[in-house]
Amino acid sequence: MSVYILSDFMDTYDKITISIPLENVELKGDMALPANAHALVVFAHGSGSSRLSPRNQLVATYLNSIGLGTLLFDLLTYEEDKNYSTRFDINLLADRLLKATLWVEGQNWGKNVQIGYFGASTGAAAALVAASKLSQVLAVVSRGGRPDLAFSALPKVKAATLLIVGSLDSQVLQLNKQAYNQLSTEKKLEVVAGASHLFEEEGTMDQVCLLAGNWFEKHLQPIPLLND
């Protein structure tokens, strides 16, 4: 297992591929910590996707540009991802996300890091379940998410939660409205006009980036990543 220190990332936005050992599996991840990064946003991708999701990569690049670190990792191994039911095992996905977060906090560069989650589709449900169990997760952003799949966990979420849904994604929008009512933490529902489920329409992902960036900047306050 490779060990990284903050100085490895101080002068670059380039991604570094890492391996996250979790019990009997090792998951691949792409991490970037810009100079003076004060927080790390961990991504949870949707079913059938991976850390290479172009939309999540776009959001991550934007977050890096405003000084936030990012970690995108595969929630499932290649073999696990072949199993359709495993892709929708929210408890398994949430457990992987939770353990990856604890792994981050166990690294020298991650001991004092502020943690946020960005989840898409089923990954948003996994993010909310994990956040309901980890008080150190301070902010969650869901893009086209399925928070309804985390329904029983929603009242336990303490992290400030932003739900972003496309106006054309009518069924998912209704599910998000139902989930929104179950959240008892600071919360907001943003509807992006003219956007479908995948936010493929021109300019819609730009809005997602801005909304997510503003939310994380508000709720992940700057602190040093390492003690002096």
UniProtKB/TrEMBL annotation:
GO terms for molecular function: hydrolase activity. InterPro entries: AB_hydrolase_fold. Keywords: Hydrolase. This is Dienelactone hydrolase.
